[in-house]
Protein 1
Amino acid sequence: ARDDALPRDLEGRTVVVSAGGTREALDPVRYLTNRSSGKQGYALARVAAQRGAKVTLVAGNTAGLADPAAVDVVRIASARELQTAMAKYAADADAVVMAAAVADYRPAEVAPTKLKKGTAGSADLETITMIENPDVLAGLVAARAEGGLPARSVIVGFAAETGDANGTVLDYGRAKLRRKGCDLLVVNAVGDGRAFEVDENAGWLLGADGTESALALDSKTVMASRILDAVVAQMTAPH
Ligand code: CTP
Ligand code: CA
């Protein structure tokens, strides 16, 4: 009955969604990760499939989420594995949604054997040297310009922002949209300043075409629907 209420406006479209957190190995038994639950990305994949899309979900670490029905799930661990998977599956995508929480840095070296405390290698456990990961989202935008993705594909990024003395959530969202070069940016207001910063809104949906709409705090399923509404609007916009 729920499905019946959804439009089939993604019928015949291919959608790739990344979700969850990446894991960056330090040695065979240790890794660095983040608190991403994966819930928003999983909701996007599920709702896109319910709206008729052929969906690939590129999934990192999640809070034990079950695979959504009628979705192809590809598992990745590190940011570099995510980059490779996204390049592959986005190659024929009509929409790409980067909901994954990508580690900005990874350990510069992965020890082939377990690091032990109180031995020569133990310095590697006290001070971990990190190097920057590739920016997967910006890479997809650059790849599209070179024909690696369909020219008319819609690329969506996410940003969780707090305002500070130098700018509001919206200021940081606008700057990030420009920096990344994606078509849509979902900006979530996070942290203690949220209520003060953006009133009752949980965030913003910013379009590269200058459109900006407030996203009221709601379930991740409803958020997914609103985001996909904006994706469909861009897909079907005249050009
Ligand atoms: N992202 C990505 N690759 C990275 C980092 C981020 O693809 N190495 C994507 C995320 O999936 C998200 C968007 O970029 O869709 C914004 O992520 P965010 O962490 O907010 O952006 P950063 O450029 O890393 O900026 P910040 O310094 O605020 O973390
Ligand atoms: Ca980041």
Note: Helices lie at 2-5, 39-50, 79-90, 123-126, 136-145, 169-180, 194-198, 220-236.
Protein 2
Amino acid sequence: MVENFSEWFHDILEEANITDSRYPIKGMAIWMPYGFKIRKYMLEKIKELLDKDHDEVLFPLLVPEAELAKEGEHVKGFEDEVYWVTKGGRNDLNEKLALRPTSETAIYPMYALWIRSHIDLPKKYYQVVNTFRYETKHTRPLIRVREITTFKEAHTAHATKEECDEQIEDFIEIYKEFLDSFGIPYLISKRPVWDTFPGADYTMAFDAIMPDGKTLQIGTIHNLGQTFAKTFDITFEDKDGEHKYVYQTCAGLSDRVVASIIGIHGDEKGLRLPPMVSPNQITIIPILFKKGKEEVMAKCTEIKEALEDAGLRVNIDDRDIRPGKKFYDWELKGTPLKLELGPRDLENNITIAMRRDEGEKIELALDDTLVDNVKDLLDKSYENLKGSAWKFQEEHVKFTENIDEIAELVEAGNVAAVNWCGDEDCGKEIEEKTGYDVLGIHKDAEDGAKCIVSGKDAKYVALVAKTY
Ligand code: PR8
């Protein structure tokens, strides 16, 4: 699978009914029913985490040109990617309207109206919307799309720089918990200046290593400082009566989260879904013969109800096809646990459980231990997926002190970790010499470490990778 990950990924999206990319606009696809459910459970999780101290809002899709153009750096970063609406019916519009590529310029003029006093702060809003980016790089379903259908963007405003910095840490914790719940490993880095979000002071990014060794940026958190506050005049009256600009952050995740779940956990048989997002956490497969059919089906229904009462998502595959085909289908679709039940099992008062992540068959008694045993297997399945994904990541970050070795490591499917003095010139030289991207500062360098380019004292360990 690693050799042809791209092909595997495209095939599985169609075979497992995740998305259909045949829609006649490049970079825009359809969420199919099975994919839509995965998306729904993923969304429920991020909403649960954000709802603890954010409020959900919903802004219009269109942004007036004048607002979009206000913040110089920001507009420069996005100008090649904006879709414009220029007509209403047959009439030319007085002002061009942008399909939001992201919503800073839609939200912040309203923040300027809503934020008056220190009692209005902090303001923490988020929305889940579709955003549009006319991506010029090669588009890929879920990974690089022109309509990002599940853009989860949070925007916060604070009275002080300290609170703003704390918010960055809070987002990091929220994103960790979010990705942990699907067992997705991540590398956190501070992006280099040249790859910082347009208009931000700095950007913290979560990257995941996909099976082909390329990294996927799955989420970003931006410290906006006071740049947008000054552009959009977002001020508040402090306790001492002074008018001050707010400090701001924004953070976003996209459809890429689903891509990482599919790509990182999948295997040659198909998806291996973590229970949190699996449309069915348990699939019951009745083994039916003419004799005893009703009894087996009745028992399957009874098991389903008992598991559902315990809060689990269960389906019975009672299609009139060979059980082998059913096993094949649910392996492809990655249901975490299958329960098989035939007349002989019924006689023995057992069901055969099979975890998707490792495939071993286990007999479970059909008594009041069943629900706990099933939950236990789901937990083990999640832990195993998570553990092996983290292990893969650990094995694929390789340190080197030799710039010529970076290509060797990256071409073998790794992310290279190197000592870096932090100077832009050295960072850019790494990129130019290797053709890969500097993901950014991953951690502080050890005492005595020397920059891989200049040989000066190194401040940081930077990550270098081929990126999506
Ligand atoms: C912001 N403003 O916009 P960001 N296809 C799929 N996913 C994408 C794409 C794409 N074409 N482009 C970006 N992403 C800030 C924060 C509001 C929220 C994903 O930030 O431009 C990437 O995972 O960094 C990226 O990390 C995330 O959206 C946020 O986009």
Note: The domain at 397-465 is CATH 3.30.110.30 (Translation Initiation Factor IF3).
